[in-house]
Structures are given as C-alpha cells and as structure tokens.
Specification:
The protein is globular. It has 219 residues and is α/β, with parallel strands linked by helices. Helices cover 44% and strands 16% of the residues. It contains 10 helices and 8 strands. The chain has an 8-stranded parallel beta sheet with strand order 7-6-5-4-3-2-1-8. 39% of the residues are buried.
Amino acid sequence: MELQERLNEVRSKIATAERDAGRSARSVELVAVSKTFEADTIRLAIKAGQRVFGENRVQESQGKWPELKKEMPGIELHLIGPLQSNKAAEAVALFDVIESIDREKIARAIAEEMKRQGKELRLYVQVNTGLEPQKAGIAPDDAAAFINFCRDELGLTIEGLMCIPPAEDNPGPHFALLAKLAEKCSLKKLSMGMSGDYETAIAFGATSVRVGSAIFGAR
C-alpha cells in the first residue's frame, strides 16, 4: 500500500470513529508522526495534503524541517517527545506546538525563550498516566498544581493535555483519566491515541491523534 492510500485509510477511520462517538466531522486533528523518516518521504505526505506533523527529537527535526517548512508554508510542527532544557531555544524557534511540558525547569525555559524570541507557541502538559518511571510526564495527582504554576507563575497558556498509555495496558482508562483531568483544569484539547489505539482515543474525547506507522509504515 502506498503512503497516499495509508493516509486516506487513517483519515477514513478517524471520520468513522468521530461518527461512532457522536462527534462532529473533522473535530479530530491528525498529527502525522514523521520521526526517523527522511524529508523525501515526508514530502509525499505533504503532497497528499497532510499539513500537521509530529517529531520526537529537536536535533533530528533541525536536519529536515527548516527546509520543508520553507518549501511548504502552512505546515504545523509538533514536538511530541521529551524536551531537555538546553534545547529550549531550538525547540521554540522550530516548533509551533510543544506537547511535552512536564516539569518546572522545562516550563521556565520555554517561557523565557518564547519571550526572548517574541514567539507564542501552543503548549500541552504531558501526563504520565501509568506512572511509568522510564517515561516522561507529570504524575496525574500533580497535574492540576503544575498547570496552575504554568499559568499563574509563568504566564503560560496551556492549551491541553497529552499522554502515552503503557504499551501493555488497555488504553481506555488512561484516556478517561486524561479527559477527567482536562475537565478539572478547564482545558479543551486532548492529544491522545497513536497508530494502535487512535480510534479508542477518539471515543474518549481526543481532539488530536498522533499516528506514525499506520501512515509511514514500519520504522
């Protein structure tokens, strides 16, 4: 199956999941996760009409996205992987959305860089819903206080929440937890769901899904 066909299939499944959940058409944004893929492969997705992409690493993204963004105005680039504070300047310069704000040091670094560069990014707090020690994200019990800190102390606008459930778990309860936290914190956006579970995520209220291998193929 060609990339165009895979992309169309994912779009079709998103539309079906929206209908099944009683949600309006095109209420879910598709973030095509292009990490590890070369610029030429990404160009095929852009040619097929995709405009929103997600990357895991700042350094890898710097090697391909400045040129791609120059070629195609209107691209929206999301950082969905963990961010180190020493990469904050590069991240703010390159990305439009950072989905992985998860600790005070990162939040401060991003706030300072946005001010210094005169650039306003859309920001999500990543929540470690499975409390996995090896995974980024703030603990669910600490999320509300951290969001208040970002808003009140740093003046950041937090748009939504993001999570990556443990691979071995049923993702439904994790998505439900994230939706409950978002409601508690008066947040409208939920970035949840990947290639294996994005239809489930839509049923639980995802406003964006991060799909890589179902579009680009195996890495």
